[in-house]
Structures are given as structure tokens and as C-alpha cells.
Design a protein that fits this description.
413 residues, alpha+beta, 15% strand
Length: 413
Amino acid sequence: MAPLDLVRCDITQANCQRAIFESVAESLEADPTSMPPIRTISVEQFEEEVRSGVSDDGLMGDDPETRGLRLIGFIPDAAESLTETEIEYQVSAIAAYYSGGSRSITVIDRDYDEVNAQSILAHEFVHAIQDREFGIGSVYANVSTTDGVMGARTVIEGDATYSSFAWVYDQLDYAPDSIDWDQIYRDFQEGSRRDAADPEVPITASASGFPYAFGIELLGRATQDQGLSGRAAFFMAPPPSALASMVGYEGFVTNGFTPLDVPEDAFPAPVSESELTFEDRHGAWYLYATLLRLGFNEFAARVYAWRWRGDELGIFENGSEVVAVWRIRFAADPSFIVDAVNQSARDVAWSAVAEGNDVFIVAAESDASLALWEAQPLDVVASVLASVPNVRKGISGTGPLRCNPPRFKATSQ
């Protein structure tokens, strides 16, 4: 009997699934037994599952978080709601997911081309192997912010993307020195940067793609430099922020991860009867995308984003209006962003002011509300991140790790 072609076999068939799992496990020197169960569902079934746990209230777009994220520009003004934006992204982009609770894999049937189908399944198998070797939940152990999630996910998704691509290249008999990994990394990141600059793409969606684009290089270079031990080291000590992943492997080797210098007093004194309803740290990628959308060229946006040292976004509500306050700390003079915000043609009531190396950006639903906030004293309200509701803090190894593995692209041999 002829050997099974692992990059062209039918991934709905048990013998193909088993052979791919054993081969991927062997490439990672992992236990090839106990393959996770796999199911395949249609796009329509997937959308039904995604929407099944969402209340109608979450789709209205009247919640303070959605309104605040619109004001600050993280989701488009035309977006119905944060929930709907995230659902649309998941349904359109996600190819498969690994569920840590059931230790199973679900593939969304999108009529994938051969090689891409096998690459997607290999990607999910890597997640299953990660969970058994390191515990995916442990990678998120110290994560409580969007920025922290992005740092941790660069390890999880970067490793799965690099390892699945390397496995496919090996199956296609590419000589290791014929693979132009540098170009592959550039291609990934150029696509991610285009999304960051596109005002029609929610910054929240570009942040979901970030871990693949920057993680493949971070984990790829670590594995190429130090082998599987280099890979394992990142699971033991994941990047604490998106900036650490943006700086990349060489920056990490030279300087370690950039330390955070988060302001203890995060916000201005709230206007009377306004309460903090949401707080989060979004990180350097959100700053980078914001700068691009304010008109900075790519090089300048990247340089200024690398000067990020911490941020806090607070969304306040007084019963009728919402105000978003984004405080960003820099390693140098931040007057560039103050000028950009205050000269912006964006149709929103917002302004910025600098205090030392910090910038306060205030975005309001009316000019009158903005004026009241502009008159408030700065730097007087302590961050209470641990006590403010934030759904992103619910991340653990028990929920589904929804993945949108990028399409496999062959390179020159």
C-alpha cells in the first residue's frame, strides 16, 4: 500500500487525521498517542453556536463599552456593537478552534484547498500538544488586560503557526535552507499593518490577527536559534505586552522584555455623577493603529509605538452620556500625539493634553460633556483595574481557543 500523502489526504477521514497528528507530534518530540477528537461543522452551524450564548442586549450597541470604544476609535463609528463586531470577525475569519475544556478540535468547513486544510488541522494539533506539554491556561496565568492577552497569544498562536508551517514544508520536502522565513515573516506583518491602518477594519479585529503575524517570527526565531528548548522558554515566561512581541526576538535577546511603567493614578477626576464602568490596558498595538489612522506614516507610527510604556483606558457613564479617557505613558516627549489628536478631522468630540510623559485623550458624546471633562484636574483617580468588570479577564485554559490560521503559502525551493 502506498504511503499516505499527509498534505493532500482528506482531513475528514480518521486515517488522515491520525497520521497528521502522529507526524506533527513527532516533529515536536511530543507524545503521539491520545489524539484529540475532531468534529467538522458548517459556517452556518458555527455562526449559530457563536450567537447562541449572546443576549439581545449585547447586540444593541448601547452598552458603555461599545460606545466608549467607538468614541476612542477602536471600533468603527458604523459598527452596531462590540459584540456584533466580534461575532462578524469570528464567523468570517476563524477556520478552526481547540477547546481546552473538552480537549477537542472543531474545524469550520470552508471548502479549503489541499495543503491549507492540512495546515489548519496541524495548527490545531499543535494547540492540543501545547496544552498537554505546558497547559495553555498557565500561559494566561498573570493576564488581566487586552495587552496581556496579546502578549500571551503571540506565544500560543505564533508557535502553532510556525510549527504547522514548518511541518508542511517538511512534508513537501523543502530543504531547510531553501525556506525564506524572513520573507514569510515580512508578509505576515505587512498584512497585519495594513489592517491596522484601515479605518474600516476594527482595531479590535486587527489585534486578533496580531498574535499570528508577530508570534510566528518571535517563536520561529526562538525555535530556529535554540531548538525546542527556546520554544519552551517562551511558554514558561510569555511576553507581558504586545510591545514585547513587536520589538521581536532579537530585541528580547538583547534587552529582555520592555518593562511596563503603568501610571498608578490613571484618570482625571470624574465629572459629577460619572462612574467608571470599564477599564483596560490596550497596549502598543492599539496605539500604533491609532497613530496610523491619525495620519502618521508607518515608520513614524512604529517608532512612537515603541516608546509606549503603559496605558489605561477608562469608560465613564453618568446615566445618559459616556466619556472615554485613554491615558498613555511614553518614554519620551509625547507632544506629537497631542497635536495629532487636536488637529484631527475625525468627527468626534475629543481632545488631548500632555502631563509630563503622559497623554490624556478624552473622547465624549457631546462638546458640552467634553468641555466639562477638560476642566477637571488630572492625575487624581487611581487605577482600579482589578475591580472593574472586563470580560477579557475570563480567559482560561477551559474555554475554546478560537483560531484563524493563515493560509499556507509555498515559498521558493
